[in-house]
Input
Amino acid sequence: MRSERGKIDGDWSVNDDVELHGMVTGAITVDDGGFIRLYGMCCGDFIVHAGGRAAVHGMVKGDVINRGGDVVIYGMVDGVVHEDSGKTTIDATAIIHSRAVRAEIRAENASSPDGTGAGSPTRPIE
Output
């Protein structure tokens, strides 16, 4: 897994395994086969397509839009969480500022008390 740090200007597409500790000033799109662990900030929308996976530990200023991928939110979202298709899990520790969640997304504890996710009712994608 590669690691990205610093500022990325504009929109950014992910089609491999990446850990982001920096900031993207536009939208982030996760394509088929892509996997992102977001520890930094996405200033635009965060879109995950079918076959993509994402673990949001950091902050998304726009909407999180799941279009068929596997998304777990542990961090903060200023916008709306949309689940058009795929699986979206919002951890009990996550903060969704808009208080709006679209589709059948349940707030669940995606991590166990020891932080490993073992034995939890959902499968964290870490």
Confidence is low (pLDDT under 50) at residues 112-126. The two ends are 12 Å apart (CA to CA).
